[in-house]
Amino acid sequence: MSDTYVGAIDQGTTGTRFMVFDHDGTVAASAYEKHEQIYPEPGWVEHDPMEIWENTKDVVIEALAQAGIEASQLEAIGVTNQRETTIVWDAETGKPVHNAIVWQDRRTTDRVEELQEEDKVEWIREKTGLEADAYFSATKVEWLLEEGDPVKMQRSRPQDNKERAEAGELMMGTPDAWIIYNLTGNNITDVTNASRTMLYNIRDMEWDEELLEEFGVPEQMLPEVRPSSDEDYYGHTDADGFLDAEVPVAGALGDQQAALFGQTCFDAGDAKNTYGTGSFFLMNTGEEAVKSDHGLLTTVGFQRSGEPVQYALEGSIFITGAAIEWLEDVELIDDPTETAELARSVDSTDGVYMVPAFTGLGAPHWDGRARGTIVGMTRGTRREHIVRATLESIAYQTRDVAEAMVDDSGVELTSLKVDGGAVKNNFLVQLQSDIIQTDIARPQVDETTALGAAYAAGLAVGYWETLDELRDNWQVDREFSPEMDPNKADKLHDRWEDAVERSLDWATEE
């Protein structure tokens, strides 16, 4: 057993995990705790940043105890996180001024439509590689500065948030920056998370003055942007803090880029798909920021200290695993593990299609007013058909993105690495192979977001010295090959596209 380890904080949409890895990339310990999902109004989603930080401390302590190791045995800590979720906090007290606005939140859809009407979509895309969408941080922080101040009138000097931000009294960051700030006292983010804010120029690799002016965001409140794997470190944990040790915090990546890194997709053309709350299909495009003509995002893949930025194409699917959670919410299933058996119990969906556009549709459609839709039901429709249709929706959405990826990159997809909680479902992964008509490889360590953050931090401190060491750690758990006739897969997918059409532009009253 190793004497030293690397830890990774994985701050996700539904909960926070801390994982401890040894030099072989093997999991030595893991602890997880959920946090509350807050829905103040339809289409709004919030988290309590203080609850997230308290949970972070709890899972770190729990995992270390589980492994029977001291914090001093951690060579480094890496951070990975739900991206785009936006937090504004008081620079003096460290307390949030409002709940975090989650990436799924649609409250700023009207503002995005203003940008569309003002023909600013291409302008934003050229600078950031992103679509103009409420998904990203820019309109969220704009809302927090203008609307998100419920205690304003309770202060003796009721300045608004915008004035306080301009005076340097407020900080802003995504959950990685929030965690790093609480660990080290420094407001720092990495290039991948910065690239998801819609405020960062991914070609000039700096906060963009014109975008900051457009959204009314003072630059002084923004975090410092560093490489994803930083030999200068982001800081150290406090020796007098909850860990009783000074541990370097030296790596951070947004969760999907972390999974790309953890799946060792270090070379141009390497691709992975992560199945979590949503699904995120990324392809490494090397040092070239490939522009998408098919609704994909051009984003920063990762950066190591002293090395060029590696870019990626990304297809962002908002709802996949969350659709399975919805089945549980409406009591069609008692537990996600039931879905495979229920889906197998019928030969097909009997023509039922489920489009899980609960928070709009991401790539390649980008319709913030699309809504969840079930079509094709008859009196003979049973819960088994709806469950199967929900699993199929995950596979169809991934095919939509895969086809766009091939069209944009010109690289034919021959195999795909997958990870995330949903890939434990063998039925789903086989179905995905059938619908997308390609081979799929599932790794032995499927929590690759945490692994990628650990790798980034470990490389920065010399725990691992080369990328080849990490490639050697990657091991296949199981491979899946298509079993469905290609013509049948095409017909099923064509009918899916008809169902998607029914879901578009539904929420016109919002």
Automatic annotation (TrEMBL):
**According to its UniProt entry, what is the function of this protein?**
Key enzyme in the regulation of glycerol uptake and metabolism. Catalyzes the phosphorylation of glycerol to yield sn-glycerol 3-phosphate.
Any GO molecular function: glycerol kinase activity
| The Carbohydrate kinase FGGY N-terminal domain, residue ranges | 5-262
**HAMAP family in the cross-refs:** Glycerol_kin
Question: Which family is it part of?
Answer: Belongs to the FGGY kinase family.
Record-annotated residues binding ATP? Answer: 13-14, 277, 321, 421
Gene behind the chain: glpK
Give binding positions for ADP: 13, 17, 277, 321, 421, 425
One Pfam family named in its UniProt record:
FGGY_N
Q: Which GO terms describe its cellular component?
A: cytosol
Q: Which UniProt keywords apply?
A: ATP-binding, Glycerol metabolism, Kinase, Nucleotide-binding, Transferase
For whether the record's keyword set contains Cytoplasm, the answer is: no
Signal peptide (residue range): none
Q: What is this protein called?
A: Glycerol kinase
